[in-house]
Amino acid sequence: MESAEAEPSDSRPEEDGAAPRSGLPPPEQPVATMEDCLAKKMEITVSEAEKRTGRNAMNMQETYTAYLIETRAVESQSEGQCAPVDSLWRRYSEFELLRNYLSVTYPHIVVPPLPEKRADFVWHKLSADNMDPDFVERRRIGLENFLLRVASHPVLCQDKIFYSFLTQEGGWKEMVNETGFQLKADSRLKALNATFRVKNPDKRFTELKHYSDELQSVISHLLRVRARVADRLYGVYKVHGNYGRVFSEWSAIEKEMGDGLQSAGHHMDVYAASIDDILEEEEHYADQLKEYLFYAEALRAVCRKHELMQYDLEMAAQDLTSKKQQCEELATGTVRTFSLKGMTSKLFGQETPEQREAKIKVLEEQIQEGEEQLKSKNLEGRDFVKSAWADIERFKEQKNHDLKEALISYAVMQISMCKKGIQVWTNAKECFSKM
Amino acid sequence: MEAEGRVPGPPLPPPSLGSGGEAEADPDPPAGSPGAARGPLLAAAAEVLALDDEEDDLEVFSKDTSLAEVNSFSPSMPISPSSMINQYKFEDEPELRDLFITVDDPESHITAIETFITYRVVTKTSRGEFDSSEYEVRRRYQDFLWLKSKLEAAHPTLIIPPLPEKFIMKGMVERFSEEFIETRRKALHKFLNRIADHPTLTFNEDFKIFLTAQAWELSSHKKQGPSLLSRMGQTVRAVASSVRGGVKNRPETFTEMNDYMETFSQKINVLDKIAHRIYKEEREYFNEMKEYGPIHTLWSASEEDIADSLKGVASCIDKCCKATEKRMAGLSENLLPILHEYVLYSEILMGVLKRRDQIQGELDSKVDALANKKPEKDLFSEEIGKLEDKVECANNALKADWDRWKQNMQCDMRSTFTNVAENNLRYYEECLATWESFLASQTVDLHVEEDSEDKP
């Protein structure tokens, strides 16, 4: 008897970078190399943001922000002739729709995250208002970053819906809905159930799940504390601004000290004002970390998909096993497992041999089907694991590179802040020593 | 941010080596170079002291004062704070400093009635009026209060240095907490040294007794002198007369002084508040920073490739955190006590100006009374003459002391704020070094990675 157990997923070395099968379109499309990526062929920017008013689904007036997406084909060796710029406007909800589509259509891919919907991890200066110009500006940058990430992803950049998002103004929403992707989406309940009940998931995915939980927790903690540190730093700098006014007023009654006081006060003003730019730059650093905070969720999504598929496989195998058992029992007449049918037949008399034969036949057909299904599910599962893991490795490299660069840029920011401080206090010291 | 209503100052001189453009005999030494600072100092010392062995004489100066009560004689000579760190002092008078006082060793005394702290006061002197060259006595806060009131009574228009307050309401410091005692000890030390440096007060008899008498001697001495009641009577009369007179005939100088003190008092109080606020903000910042570094270390535990970078950032943040702590300490050891002292000084000075007005008021009211009693003029003229002398003495004493006080204030402010600037410079330089070395370590790694990629 063939083993009807679900095989724990492992990657097969023979296949080579091909797109995964069944349920994951499109099977014919090859994976793009770095050179073929859309990002290399097309310049993409989210260049503007505009407040709009319109009517929503319930015919009520609403205000929202629209973002201008500009694209231009990159001509290699163009002789001073730039290709024309195409542009269209999209709002945040359309970006969300695009991302949902990509997540459902490519569940083995770690899909880049969108910038946050609402301002989070604010410190006191930043407003939590979605309409706040600073927030809108940072979101614009985040959306551009999202598009560039998708466009430079070897698999995602090939997607037609994505391409249309960038180039086709009208009718895009309808196009997306026509793909029927919403139907393919796994229900949350189903996924949750699978997470709890799966018996034999690939260890690597379990580890990945833990890692993404840790990443999420540590980055949120870091962002929270960073916001508090920023708040306090703001306080320190701004209080020094009070010196300026007092020194100036005091200098009015002093003869010899007056000049020194006055000019020192000016430097204190400069010092106090300098914090605004410093902290604005730091916000960009925070945004870089935030992206990876949200990426952790994308990692979790891939793990969930694996768990779902694995659970599905385990259930199918279980089902097959029980059917085979039933078949055997009917054929040999032994009852190994307790079943209501068995009891009733004992109580009310055995079935006729013809009935039994019929039953066995049905079961044998089902078993045949089941085995085919199990085989294909196994293959699906293995393919998924393989291609998912390939993307996860790609993601890991990207993450390590990006985070290291972010940390370096943070150091650069600190250095710049220290240099500014040294400059101001050197000047102030000079003034004080002349008092 | 534009400050409104500010009188625009002169264009800022570019940060350069010397002072540039000021006509002075000695060029300003570049800040922060102790050797150069002592150069012109020594040269001037030679001129003023006319001594051969300048070095040896400078050695005599006190080594244990925390803040220099420097030179009011030549304000054009800037004292670099680092030279003060070397704790050399320079006196204005031609005589050498001959009285050295330290206040230390606080001790708790518990009796049936009360608990109190005494401080050890050690005096070393070469003065003839002192029987011995070294004295060691124990004094409690009450004794200092007594000394101050005696000095005020003897020299009503001299500026008596401030004493630390009885209680500190702000900050809710416990009466016998270590911090409170230490702050008070330092202030008491300063108090006595300021008196010692004062050209008149240093020779006051009660001051001498304070420094030299044993406990029982001091108690019995305290009991002499005008009784509490009579002293109170004096005060009442003085207040009454000041309300009446003194203001209308006040010489221009003292009106200017009054106006100056009113503004100064306002500003110094605001500065005091600002300084405390800065300290508070720095402390809050420090508290948050303490948590910030360790998160990166925690993160590094789940990473492989970037673990080192994360640990590096964690270590930088921790170092900056320590640097912040040092910066805070500098503020609380230096700026806060000085500003506080001058807040007290501003009250003292207002008091001194009032007392001068009172003395003048006595004269004025006697003169007014005389105007109505022409035939008895001769009788009163002697009394008037005495009062007139008294007023003139008081005015001159105050004027001289005022000038001295102003010079000292200028020096104190200059050195304190320069020290604050240096404190901040040190802080930023430390942080800069930390982050730069982290950056260097990261870019080295990058180069290493690139090299290994090039290899086939």
From TrEMBL, chain A:
Gene Ontology biological process terms in this record: endocytic recycling; positive regulation of autophagosome assembly; positive regulation of histamine secretion by mast cell; protein transport
Cited InterPro entries: AH/BAR_dom_sf, PX_dom, PX_dom_sf, PX_SNX4, SNX4, SNX4_BAR
Name the record gives this protein: Sorting nexin 4
Annotated PANTHER family: SORTING NEXIN-4 (PTHR46596)
Keywords, in A-Z order: Protein transport, Transport
Species in which this protein is naturally found: Aquila chrysaetos chrysaetos
The encoding gene: SNX4
Region (Disordered): 1-31
Record bears the keyword Protein transport: yes
Gene Ontology CC entries for this record: cytoplasmic dynein complex; early endosome membrane; plasma membrane; presynaptic endosome; SNARE complex
UniProtKB/TrEMBL annotation, chain B:
Superkingdom of the organism of origin: Eukaryota
CDD domains in the cross-refs: BAR_SNX7 (cd07666), PX_SNX7 (cd07284)
GO cellular component: early endosome; phagophore assembly site
GO molecular function: phosphatidylinositol binding
InterPro entries xref list: AH/BAR_dom_sf, BAR_SNX7, PX_dom, PX_dom_sf, PX_SNX7
Keywords noted in UniProt: Protein transport, Transport
Every PX domain range: 97-218
Pfam family, one: PX
GO biological process entries: autophagy of mitochondrion; endocytic recycling; piecemeal microautophagy of the nucleus; positive regulation of autophagosome assembly; protein transport; reticulophagy
Name of this protein: Sorting nexin 7
Source organism (scientific name): Aquila chrysaetos chrysaetos
Top-level taxonomy: Eukaryota, Metazoa, Chordata, Craniata, Vertebrata
Gene: SNX7
